[in-house]
Amino acid sequence: MSVRELVILGTASQVPTRHRNHNGYVLLWDGEGLMFDPGEGTQRQMLRAGVAAHDLNRILITHFHGDHSLGLAGVIQRVNLDRVPHPVTAHYPASGERFFKRLRYATAYRETVKLVPEPVAGTGAVLVDTPSYRLEARRLSHPVESYGYRLVEPDGRRILPELLAERGISGPDVGRLQREGEVGGVTLDEVSEVRRGQRFAFVMDTRLCVGVRELAEGCDMLVIESTFTDEDEALATEHGHLTAGQAGRVAAEAGVRHLVLTHFSQRYDDPSLFESQARAAGFDGELTVARDLMRVPVPKRR
Length: 302
Fold this sequence. Notes:
This protein is an alpha/beta fold. It has helices spanning about 40-50, 65-70, 70-80, 95-105, 160-165, 170-180, 210-215, 235-240, 245-255, 270-280, and strands at about 5-10, 25-30, 30-35, 60, 90-95, 115-120, 125-130, 135-140, 145-150, 155-160, 180-185, 185, 190-195, 200-205, 220-225, 260, 285-290, 295. The radius of gyration is 21 Å and the shape is globular.
């Protein structure tokens, strides 16, 4: 059975708190694991959340600030220690190549796993196209080069039983129709409709910009930073961040189904503020204020 869920390892911005670890997120997607922004302490949070090194196929770094990348050294070494049996691909801003290399070889260890560096440059691009998803990147607006990431599942077809019955197709012929596209002069298009593929986006440190909106557009799940509350919008803009209200407005305008707010400043103790401000900005879909070690299912297909 396919599993699509987000495992939240940490939710703090800049510095951890007593209740929030540095950033860290793993998207489990049909047997693949994509780790986003492993901050300091990620390896231990993986243990607590039940995520194994063997689960990881890709590591995606949005930018090279410490709260988003200092855990990379430990994760890479754990992947090698556990002798993960498949290659692991690393995506990160090309301008941070020197940081990536320093973290990769921060200390001595035995390399047993093929780590494939695939840096991102320019305004963004399609990074890989697999049968399960297309992985895209978009440039964001932060004091250092930063990218957001987006997974898009290919559209499929949904068979409509009433149309099958009208055309007298049943039993093994249904499977033949799906495999071959036509049975007895009846085409698959005549008895089915497009089933829109799922979409997931991960948006960390950034001001409002075109990239944020492009990543969020039509997403089933949007994981997005909301470092500040609306009262501190000027501070957010100055430091290259979003407020909860801005995140909620982006999600509402983009038609997001499930909004996950995260990356909270240590200055706030009441997490309900983030939800109330995102709601006040117009978002009325499913909303999660992230907590460490949560598991959040990706919404089922429409």
